[in-house]
Structure formats: C-alpha cells, structure tokens
Predict the structure.
Amino acid sequence: MTFVLRDLLATGADNAPAISAPGKSQLSFSTLRSLIAETISRLNAFGIGRNDRVAIVLPNGPEMATCFMSCASGVTSAPLNPAYRGWGCA
C-alpha cells in the first residue's frame, strides 16, 4: 500500500497537535492542512505547480518542517539548511 503525505495528514484529528517544538505554539492538524492548501494555492497563483522545483532555505525547526510539508504537497521541494557547512569550510 502506498501513502502520500495528504493521506497521512488526513488521519490526524482536527484539534490534535501535528507540529510542536519547545517554546513555540502547537500547530493542529486542521491548521496544518489549511496551511498546506493555502501554500499550494499561492504557489499555483504564481504559476508554480506539480512539475516545478522549489528550494526552501530555512534553519531546522517547525517553520522548516511546515514549509517543506506544504511545498512538497504540490511541487518538487529541496530543503536547504543555511547553517550547514561542508567539511573544511569556515
């Protein structure tokens, strides 16, 4: 059986926490599903769709997680961590 992100997110109860982090407000499954739908709608309005690629440059954390889930639900997404440094880099 194959699951896509949409299927997995659909199983969460509306008020159940979907994303949480210390010192941050929790995000419910209902709010996360709405965020994903709004993100896809806005990307589509800019002409960005299923066969397009989007790079996401955010530090690790709940914002990166929600942005990645939102973008990956509608376009090919590449999460990039600006804090990452290759070996031997200052």
